[in-house]
Amino acid sequence: MITISALILSILLQLTAFVIAIRLIRVSRRRLAWILLAIAFLFMGLRRSIELFGWLYDEPYSALYTNVSYMIGILVSILIALGVIILSKVLHSLKKTEQFRKAAEERFRILFNSTSDFIIVSDPKGDIVEVNKNTCKVLGYSKTEMLTKNFNDILTSRYFNIFGEEMKRVEADGKMIFEAEYKTSAGSIIPVEINARLAGIQDGKYIICVARDIAERKELRKKILKTIIETEEKERRRFAKDLHDGLGPLLSTIKLYINELEGEDIEEKEKKDYIKYTSELIDEAVANTRNISNNITPNIISNYGLVRSVEAFVNKINKTQHVEIIFKCIEIREKFDETIELILYRIITELINNTIKHAAATKIKIVLEHLNNKLLLTYQDDGIGFDLNQVLKNDSGGMGLKNIISRIDSINGSISINENVEKGTEVLIRIDVERRN
What we know:
By secondary structure, the chain is α+β, with helices and mostly antiparallel strands. Helix content is 61%, strand content 19%. It folds into four domains: 2-111, no CATH class; 115-213, Beta-Lactamase (2-Layer Sandwich); 218-296; 301-432, Histidine kinase-like ATPase, C-terminal domain (Heat Shock Protein 90), CATH 3.30.565. It is elongated, with a radius of gyration of 43 Å.
């Protein structure tokens, strides 16, 4: 009775193993191995069923049952052997995959902790769940301390409400870039630009915040703003001087002549002379007004565009034979935004004036190119060059160069300057533009 019960239990277990193997076929990448093992379990159950049948019925069939059982045993052994061989390959593949995974995790961990950016991972409520080493180092907290904090614990009070609103936008839009301020354990403040993105992981949603220290950028903004204000004040003073020195005396003289015309004892000939002089002075005042206006906003730009304006200016300089200027245009067929053209015109004239005044150059080459929605201006001279840092430190001598840099920044352009005392000066300016329709 015990033997029969054991055989029945064995059959049930092998059929259970068969069902499990069949289910694993659906999820396994190596399906053949589980098919072979499933068949093996099925035959093992059949073998035990034959043995059970032999116990329940007469002895004459026992030899037949035994032979069939042996054959099934051999078949089961072959099937299990094949299945195990295939599974061993799977296990080796899984081992390599695990090694690759660990190596990838190690590379990610090194990159995560080596970057100079501040990387903080939080849940949508702002509770910090992961942080990199640089964040802990700069803010002055251990990683354990950081993982117990909320984002508001490391932000200055002025950004509490703003940060909450930005987090809601990140949840809604998936990403957001904004500025904030971190405070360290010592109480110092670090202005940062945060690039926040929503990441869905199996156990929930998280917000990955990659922040960058923008203290230098803010300081540069202040310097640029200061330069712009100084430039505007300089232009106002020049404008006032032009009005005072140019129009002031003319208008005062015109007033004197008009007062003389009011006299009763003035002769007819003198009256005509005064009227003539007054008319000439008015013409001169109009001409001066036109010149002052043209200095503020050159009409030639609005009338003819950047290329023809620069060509006209270059031709005037070349006629002096003081310096040779070569001006070349590439793919400039249409006018661009008038503000950009005006700024580039003023930059080109300023660079030429600087070369003539300070560089002792004999040749200037200017190339203006339109390429992939960018205006590229290359300016080269063969002068004596200069010390860029020294010029920028000089409050008076560096105003022209500071004006150029501030003007380029005002239209989101970029400028690079190579000041070589042996080969002259090279200036490269890039500006994003859109052609007019």
